[in-house]
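In the design runs reported in the main text, the only information available to the sequence generator was the tokenized backbone. The following block is the verbatim input for one such run; it is reproduced so that readers can re-run the procedure and compare outputs position by position.
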């Protein structure tokens, strides 16, 4: 090896050894989650939503692992994500852009073999114009709004779209789709309202395959499956349905290093703003991750980390780069400089930390910062 490479290896190793947060991503567990969804969905197929860097876990690694499990349909939100992912996947994989076609992207999209999800007549016309310019037929997915008012052809554009399709077109529609607004809620009316609207659309646009379910939708039953589901969070170990036991296997664990310990006497202020005042003698540890690492500031005085199963409550405010926790429950000397505490793992799930932070698992995952040493298993 030449000396430049040696130096660069040594540097990488030093940074890795010096990392104070260790994020482990279990690609085998990801694969088992995918296969579980596949078996629930059969004969419908399971795609994978890998937007936002596969919910923060690394789109390239995740997509390649899922390709190895037989996944061929990959959904991202934005063209830039598709442009990064497309070249690293085999030709028989398809990459879809959920947020649709942006003016100016059409030719690049076509040439890179990226499939836009068309969300409006304007996008339909843009894509059709690109097909004319390239003198070929271009593939697309059509998304319909069935009650979320976010993306997709609105009801008032459907008649004109149906006419355009009847008159023959240079767009090859691969399938039609819609998205559920409340798929994680198994009770309530919105899912069945959206399903009813989707079956009207299927009547208006006969002969097309349909994609409907996200993770939650997979668990709503066959009626929601169509031919292709688009799970995201469930693949990554998040709970697909609210208020029910999570059937998915955790994929992510996170350990963070202690960077200082101390004992404080009653009356001592802890952290920014002196927001927490010790009521008794306390032993504290400062750990090396904060809101810049995706541990939300609203965990201040609320959340906890764990050490060998013992809960260590967060005291005072979460800082940008560190959090102070109460380690009084541990034997003295149990934690020292460099000890690792569990942020996500066997004692604290994504759902636990999301609940403490008043948010959802999606936001925790996608927020995990890039200062952690990432290890793929
Ligand atoms: C994000 C997204 C999904 C995946 O949703 P999960 O709840 O993570 O399974 C599926 N479809 C669309 C249109 C999305 O935007």
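Verbatim output:
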């Amino acid at each position: 090896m030449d000396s430049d490479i040696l130096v660069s290896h040594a540097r990488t190793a030093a940074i890795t050894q010096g990392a104070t947060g260790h994020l482990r991503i279990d690609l085998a567990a990801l694969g088992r989650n995918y296969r579980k969804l596949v078996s629930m969905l059969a004969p419908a197929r399971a795609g994978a939503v890998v937007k936002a860097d596969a919910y923060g876990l690394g789109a390239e690694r995740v997509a390649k692992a899922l390709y190895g499990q037989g996944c061929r349909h990959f959904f991202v939100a934005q063209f830039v994500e598709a442009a990064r992912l497309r070249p690293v996947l085999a030709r028989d994989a398809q990459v879809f852009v959920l947020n649709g076609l942006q003016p100016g992207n059409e030719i690049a999209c076509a040439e890179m073999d990226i499939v836009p999800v068309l969300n409006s007549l304007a996008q339909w016309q843009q894509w059709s114009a690109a097909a004319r310019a390239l003198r070929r037929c271009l593939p697309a997915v059509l998304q319909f709004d069935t009650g979320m008012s976010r993306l997709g052809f609105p009801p008032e554009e459907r008649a004109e779209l149906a006419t355009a399709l009847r008159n023959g077109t240079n767009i090859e529609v691969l399938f039609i789709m819609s998205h559920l607004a409340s798929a994680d809620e198994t009770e309530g009316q919105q899912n069945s309202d959206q399903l009813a609207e989707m079956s009207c659309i299927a009547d208006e646009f006969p002969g097309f395959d349909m994609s409907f379910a996200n993770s939650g939708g997979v668990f709503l039953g066959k009626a929601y499956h169509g031919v292709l589901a688009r799970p995201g969070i469930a693949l990554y170990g998040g709970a697909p349905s609210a208020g029910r036991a999570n059937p998915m296997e955790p994929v992510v664990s996170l350990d963070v290093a202690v960077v200082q310990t101390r004992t404080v006497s009653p009356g001592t202020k802890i952290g920014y703003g002196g927001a927490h005042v010790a009521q008794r003698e306390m032993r504290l540890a400062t750990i090396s991750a904060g809101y810049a690492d995706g541990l939300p500031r609203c965990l201040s005085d609320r959340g906890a980390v764990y050490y060998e199963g013992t809960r260590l409550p967060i005291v005072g405010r979460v800082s940008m780069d560190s959090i102070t926790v109460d380690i009084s429950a541990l034997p003295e000397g149990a934690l020292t400089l460099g000890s690792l505490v569990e942020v996500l793992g066997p004692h604290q799930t994504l759902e636990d930390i999301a609940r403490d932070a008043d948010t959802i698992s999606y936001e925790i995952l996608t927020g995990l910062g890039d200062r952690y040493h990432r290890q793929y298993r």
